[in-house]
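Support request from a user on the community tier.

User writes: "When I paste my structure tokens into the form, the page sometimes reloads and wipes my input. The last time it worked, I copied everything first. Here is what I submitted, just in case something in the input itself triggers the reload:"
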């Protein structure tokens, strides 16, 4: 019998004790919990209970391995035709002069800035604007691949794809094939927000629907490609909405097995139309990571995005189901600092990131974008001096 069977008894002082113990038994037996049980965990599972279960699954799947990669971001524009109420980033077309709109050449300059750096991935995502159409992106992707063929291109979300395919009058199937042929290797998880149709309409009205988001990922997976998924939480949603979101992802993953990582994104309230909302507590963040880990039994990885969460909380998350802390990051990422993230100028050296992981007793593994292990770092192997030159990136 696993030690959790006894150890978790005292953690379950709840009117729903019997149901919680049943969930514990299911998790320990490797069985899937259902939506009702997921909601019950949010309502009645205390942090130590859900944390222990999530950590059990995390260690069963990944042991102490904790992954990061070396990536940089390009945000083509922060001007957007949409008006998502949680977004602190977009400068509407009427305030266009406050934003930026990079040309292909300017973006290639960013790519070239990393020519002598051992980065393995570029993550491209930004606002939606008519001039960034299918032709523009195909040309950009081809130029990046021509310049640096081995760089993994993780680019755009269904929000952009839906818009540019509609404008180009191509089907999703045809569009995703064109995108794949132009060099895109994988899709990041953005644009998922929250799948409940009514709430999505309220906070992200006008952009691709939940069904369209899922459909684009499904088609992408059918081409043998991988993608990530996110959930924006801590705004107006209920626990039922969160579990509904996880359920739709789990069910698509059963079909395609194309998702690599789930990334919960905590709503930050600086400078947006939902600024009147309080941000949720760290306890809520950790419970959300843990329950995501428990619910998404067919996802290999749960990622904490450290620039948004902050370093200490990212460390803490590693005990609550998280096994990935994303990557090193540079000055070109504005979306989180503009939304009020803990990290106003997010950048970490490889040594710092490795230390962050090892300092809480986990193994620091550098991965590529599809989770092949590039290197494991031994404790004490890296010092600030040996890596400073790689990741002391310029901060705006
Ligand atoms: O879809 C926007 C979120 C997402 C706010 O796949 C906000 O590896 C919090 O998806 N508070 C885009 N979040 C970023 C994204 C992502 C990030 C890191 C790694 C990966 C990956 C994907 O950012 C948007 C939206 O949900 N966002 N505004 C805000 N105020
Ligand atoms: Fe545009 Fe994305 Fe911001 Fe919505 S979240 S307004 S789609 S940049």
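"...and here is what came back when it finally went through:"
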């Amino acid at each position: 019998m696993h030690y959790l069977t006894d150890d978790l008894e005292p953690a379950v002082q709840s009117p729903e004790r019997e149901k919680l113990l049943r969930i514990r038994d299911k998790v320990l037996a490797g069985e899937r919990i259902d939506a009702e049980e997921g909601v019950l965990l949010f309502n009645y599972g205390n942090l130590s209970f859900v944390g222990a279960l999530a950590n059990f699954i995390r260690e069963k799947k990944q042991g102490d391995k904790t992954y990061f990669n070396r990536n940089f971001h390009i945000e083509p524009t922060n001007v957007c035709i949409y008006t998502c109420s949680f977004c602190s980033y977009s400068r509407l077309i009427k305030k266009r002069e406050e934003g930026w709109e990079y040309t292909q050449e300017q973006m290639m300059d960013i790519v070239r800035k990393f020519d002598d750096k051992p980065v393995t991935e570029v993550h491209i995502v930004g606002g939606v604007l008519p001039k960034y159409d299918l032709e523009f992106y195909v040309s950009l992707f081809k130029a990046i691949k021509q310049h640096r063929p081995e760089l993994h291109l993780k680019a755009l979300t269904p929000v952009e794809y839906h818009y540019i395919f509609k404008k180009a009058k191509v089907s999703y199937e045809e569009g995703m094939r064109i995108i794949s042929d132009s060099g895109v290797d994988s899709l990041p998880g953005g644009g998922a927000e929250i799948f409940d149709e009514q709430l999505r309409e309220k906070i992200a009205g006008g952009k691709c629907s939940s069904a369209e988001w899922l459909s684009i990922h499904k088609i992408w997976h059918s081409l043998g490609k991988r993608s990530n998924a996110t959930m924006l939480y801590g705004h107006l949603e209920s626990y039922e909405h969160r579990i509904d979101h996880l359920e739709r992802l789990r069910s698509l993953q059963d079909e395609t097995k194309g998702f690599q990582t789930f990334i919960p994104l905590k709503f930050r309230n600086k400078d947006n139309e939902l600024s009147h909302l309080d941000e949720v507590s760290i306890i809520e963040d950790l419970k959300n990571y843990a329950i995501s880990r428990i619910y998404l039994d067919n996802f290999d990885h749960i990622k904490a995005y450290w620039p948004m969460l902050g370093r200490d909380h990212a460390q803490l998350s590693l005990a609550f189901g998280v096994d990935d802390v994303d990557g090193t990051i540079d000055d070109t990422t504005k979306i989180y600092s503009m939304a009020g993230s803990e990290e106003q100028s997010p950048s970490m050296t490889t040594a710092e990131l490795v230390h962050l992981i090892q300092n809480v007793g986990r193994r620091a593994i550098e991965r590529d974008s599809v989770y092949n292990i590039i290197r494991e770092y031994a404790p004490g192997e890296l010092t600030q001096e040996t890596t400073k030159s790689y990741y002391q990136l310029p901060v705006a």
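Agent notes: The reload is a front-end session timeout and is unrelated to the input. Residues 80, 82-84, 87, 89-90, 127-128, 159, 204, 207 surround iron/sulfur cluster (ligand 2) (CB under 6 Å). Residues 29 and 95 are 55 Å apart (CA to CA). Escalated to web team.
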